[in-house]
Amino acid sequence: MRHFTNVNDLGDLKAALDEAFEIKKDRFKYVELGRNKTLLMIFFNSSLRTRLSTQKAAMNLGMNVIVLDVNQGAWKLETERGVIMDGDKTEHLLEAIPVMGCYCDIIGVRSFAQFQNKTDDYNEVIINQFIKYSGRPVFSMEAATRHPLQSFADLITIEEYKKKARPKVVMTWAPHPRALPQAVPNSFAEWMNATDYDFVITHPEGYELDPKFVGNAKVEYDQMKALEGADFVYAKNWSGYAGDNYGRVISKDRAWTVSAAHMAVTNNAYFMHCLPVRRNMIVTDDVIESPQSIVIPEAANREISAQVVLKRILEGLE
Amino acid sequence: MRHFTNVNDLGDLKAALDEAFEIKKDRFKYVELGRNKTLLMIFFNSSLRTRLSTQKAAMNLGMNVIVLDVNQGAWKLETERGVIMDGDKTEHLLEAIPVMGCYCDIIGVRSFAQFQNKTDDYNEVIINQFIKYSGRPVFSMEAATRHPLQSFADLITIEEYKKKARPKVVMTWAPHPRALPQAVPNSFAEWMNATDYDFVITHPEGYELDPKFVGNAKVEYDQMKALEGADFVYAKNWSGYAGDNYGRVISKDRAWTVSAAHMAVTNNAYFMHCLPVRRNMIVTDDVIESPQSIVIPEAANREISAQVVLKRILEGLE
Amino acid sequence: MRHFTNVNDLGDLKAALDEAFEIKKDRFKYVELGRNKTLLMIFFNSSLRTRLSTQKAAMNLGMNVIVLDVNQGAWKLETERGVIMDGDKTEHLLEAIPVMGCYCDIIGVRSFAQFQNKTDDYNEVIINQFIKYSGRPVFSMEAATRHPLQSFADLITIEEYKKKARPKVVMTWAPHPRALPQAVPNSFAEWMNATDYDFVITHPEGYELDPKFVGNAKVEYDQMKALEGADFVYAKNWSGYAGDNYGRVISKDRAWTVSAAHMAVTNNAYFMHCLPVRRNMIVTDDVIESPQSIVIPEAANREISAQVVLKRILEGLE
Q1: Which pLDDT value is given to residue A75?
Q2: A13 Cβ partners below 8 Å, 6+ apart?
Q3: To which H or E segment does residue A41 belong?
Q4: Which pLDDT score is estimated for C73?
Q5: Are the C-beta atoms of residues B138 and B202 closer than 8 Å to each other?
Q6: Which of A33, A56, A65, A281 to mutate to test the interface with B (most CBs of B within 10 A)?
Q7: Radius of gyration of chain A (CA)
């Protein structure tokens, strides 16, 4: 594997899952694989889980790790050719990116949607420039439209907890005070579509996701109806995607907050969320603290998904 | 040893000191002990000595280290159940702490007293939540009421420099422009009470420490009288503890600044301070630069105290 | 080698270059040399290339690395004796520096000219205090008046690309919106003077560098004339050095921006710059993107120059 930005990069999911479970049994089995190899983790946005889990995964593989926090305000990259750089941008990406590639073997990039230009966001301008100009394998630590390390961890978690071959998985929108990117729900939908699960998406009208990601999922506007018989409830907020609603908060309706009443109509479903989660906005205290809440094991699997990805990229280095 | 937050966690001090001196002779003797083990250092407050010395100690033991700086302003954790999280706090500690525990083997936490709620500070709410929810061994890198890695290093230093079996050790308050926590003096008193030294505390009236920490120490309000015949002078500022004075600066009286005149009444005492030190507030230039000043060897012993603690926690991992 | 702050510390340049090319062939040949040795990198100023390349070089040698970012505003060191430290400076350098030396084997320091006191800048007050008080070998990661790791990388690059034994190397001033230190041009001049290259410096009147660094270089105020027949064009902005112009921007004349017209009079010269570079201020897009631009290989050699320096300091440790 060279780059990792979406589900297709991983190839056969069954093989990837087998690899994940093998690594989970012995995290240090491949500790020699990364010897004298350096991972550079570049954060344009803040991070807790991704920062820690990816660093841990790299160290499990014996890699050296360099973390570079790009302060959003302080370090502005010029992206246009022809500009006279006499303002506040001190470096052009056409120099900065290949330079970063000089000092490492693999690059991880976190760069969220900026909600300033939908086309740029959905064309993944930032991470694609790293792929084009760095000369190194690049993987997403959450890009503008996808968060594949999260989705892979979600898949691993569902495989660990599922009680039937083809569980019903319901991704439900839930309210949040701020406008969040669509990367997590897009990506989760993309990965669920790559399985044979019964996958349903529910959200208020106006919160339709990009059809490219919705794929064959059933979209149901009645949240309670969607949750009926669910084996897994995957809650997440996102801001509007379609038309003028792009990047906007359309609803803060707390009737959508996942509560015991919602869980009661499910098939004793497990509750999942990528974290961080706003309690009593996304989900009530009692649901997230219930035995059916698997948010912590889900987070723990972030180390495993990152390690499979890094292992495969390491194996692909010439 | 599972957790390390106070002197009692270390057990027999003689054995701990022997271990410290053994490690100081060969810091890399146990470099295999920490192989494939990860230390997560979490800083809610800034740090120089603790950051560097603990990281160095962990690397001496062959550990991997991840440092997480929690910007006090930016990363606000919700601590109450039942709150609708629609404000500026993006994550609840009930998720954040177990998640951090997922990606490491041992957690070090620095979290100072906040002077907003004395009961919360003296109940050590933050570090105790890490102990309760992280699922990992936790050690203090200075908590609200104690700084045990500093006190252990202080003890090692006194043992190295003392010229009699039972030296006279005087902890003296000294002025400072800002309100500082009581963690260092509390902790130093706690550790001195665990030895058979002749231990005296001196401070202006109003600066009485929590009796739990003062223990059997002699409290003497006359600084010069307290210093008479001292073998070690341990200077430190702290803010008020008792009643309405909690967290307040009551005096900036520079007559308490440790000077040559103060040192003249001692038994040619060694001068100690945990650093950073405000010169000519806490101590005069000539005293801290004199041959009797052992503040640098004292700081150097922070690596040793941290390494004993990490070694013991590593040995206690299942 | 004990310290590294200028070209003389490296001794015979031919031997140093041979060592650089040996390391470039196998970066991990000396991976055992740094075992259980710790590099402390201290940044008083921000850094991309130096941060990454020096960290990578240290890891190539098997060292442990601790990075300490000293926020310029937050962490103020008192430098004067006798001051009553009741203001915003929390620690005196006479304590801070030896303490930092306690927890490492080698110290790298980045500390730019502050343009507040020319004598202090040109006496290299900050890095010299580290040399005097840390008790450790110290190397410059760009100090007030020199950037020797950059100059050494520049020399390696010229040696790799030169087509004749004694190439003509022209360092040309170019415009920039802000006042930049003279460290890079000073240092480059110092290193070029240590070779037998034909070395020319060109800049507008008023931009004369310290004669100590200019040395035997030919200074030519007519940029086009200077560039005639050049084999290497080394562009760089700097602020005024002489008299009242110290630290000031005297000209932003974009006629000095290196363009295709400038390159046309050279001997098909290679274009070099230490980066980050302001496009269309220092150099036009077409020149920096041309096949003759070697700014990326030049940046890549920063890893090599740092590794030679660290290797030699490691070999010199008792």
Answers
A1: 58
A2: A7, A155, A194, A195
A3: strand A38-43
A4: 44
A5: no
A6: A56
A7: 20
